[in-house]
Amino acid sequence: MGREITMSMLRAGLIKPWSVLADLIYPPACAGCGTWTGAHRSLCPACWSGIRFIERPYCEVLGSPFSHDLGMGILSAEAIADPPVFDRLRSAAIHDGVVRDLVLGLKYRDRTDLAPMMAGWMLRASDGTIAACDAIIPVPLHRTRLFSRKYNQAAELARHLARLSGKPLLAATLLRTKRTTQQVGLGARAREDNVRGAFAIPEGRAGDVFGGRIVLVDDVYTTGATVTAATRVLKKAGVADVTVLTFARAVGDPI
């Protein structure tokens, strides 16, 4: 025990000077606005207060926030009229303001350092589905887009979710085999057409997910076209239950 304490203290003594030096070169700043803060990967009070987290009450299937509590198990009109192919959707926050800036930073500005913080919020918003799942799968990028972007933002979030939860990460079980155009700016029908037939499970990998409970991870939920197409492939492979988990979600006013 004495040796363990000594080694721990030694490591702390070696790491601390480098941490202090790093903080001098790269001072801790708000991930939203850049204001100096007391810790890395954190938000200043102003940015934090502007985030609209998605909390209960919400639709049990689509996770759509309700303006008042209607009781447990209540579904939204949309979920009743047009049930999704996935079993449920959960998201951490509404896609506006600081949350939109975080998404754009991770997706387009090489801010992979934001992924651990964002994944922590997603784990909290998962409503126990990660604890109950068998594996985590990110929505994949096509190889050409992955080459140009250098990383997959959904895979970064999924990687940290797997680390935080201890659940298996199946990063190569679902592939994007069709090079689709950017979804930004497309209408709902155009988005569906764009991702139709875009995903596949490689030969010999269906056993990874057959009969399992999967959490499918993406950065933003808008119309749901992408995760719907991906879920169809997973369900066809025998997946028993699919939870879609995103960091942000585009919504209007609470129902």
TrEMBL record:
Residue runs in coiled coils: none
Q: Which residue ranges traverse the bilayer?
A: none
> Pfam families given for it?
DZR_2, Pribosyltran
Q: Which residues form the Double zinc ribbon domain?
A: 22-69
Domain of life, per lineage: Bacteria
Segments forming domain Phosphoribosyltransferase: 191-248
Give the protein family. Answer: Belongs to the ComF/GntX family.
Q: What is this protein called?
A: ComF family protein
Q: Which species expresses this protein natively?
A: Rhizobium leucaenae
